[in-house]
Amino acid sequence: SPGMPWITDTWAPSSAEAKSKERAPVPHGQPARGLRDVLLLLLVLVAALAGVAFFIVSYNVMVRPVKEASETQVALQSLLQTGQRRLEAGDWAGARDSFEAFLQAMPGDPTAQAGIDFSRQREVLDGQYAGALAAEDAGDWQGALRALEAVQSQDPAYPGVAERIAKLQDRVATEATWQ
């Protein structure tokens, strides 16, 4: 290259130059020009690797923990929202699972604990209500009425229970009249 004679000298010396360099003594304590260039290249590579290592260590120490904490917070918030949606949908077991997973990361959280307690209570009430319907279908109107009244005493706003109690009370009264 015309603008970079050292490249030509270093990498492609003419045969006459090569022979003269072979014969020319290198002063003691000073490396040959080619060796000096290789050492400079190695120094640049080591500096670049040190820079990359510094970046990686800095990222792991400063950026990654903040990023992971943010991701954890988003995941926990998602668990709470999923639990609430499942409660609204009547998926008591699914809601309880979401809230329990949240409690694994945040023990003692009152919102999650309330969701678990509510879902368990609703599972019990749903079981009692289903038992009342089965008793009614089997013709055990007194048993069905007792079961429905137990559900209503625990949750007066339980869907459909007041109407079904009124219906069964009419049936029981009618049955008592015919006996």
How much is the average pLDDT?
83
Binned, the helix content reads over 70%
Instruction: Say how many strands there are.
Output: 0
Tell me the strand percentage band.
Answer: under 5%
- Label the overall shape: rod-shaped
**Topology as H/E string?**
HHHHHHH
Give the class from helix and strand content and strand pairing: mainly alpha
Low-confidence stretches: none
Radius of gyration: 41 Å
Reported for the largest beta sheet, the result is:
none
Please give the alpha-carbon distance between the first and last residues: 120 Å
Number of helices: 7
Structure explained in plain terms:
This protein is mainly α and 179 residues long. It contains seven helices and no strands. Helix 6 packs antiparallel against helix 7. It is rod-shaped. The N and C termini lie far apart (120 Å). The mean pLDDT is 83.
List keywords for this structure.
mainly alpha, 0% strand
Short structural summary:
The chain has helices at residues 5-11, 15-23, 33-89, 92-105, 110-137, 141-154, 161-178. It is mostly helical.
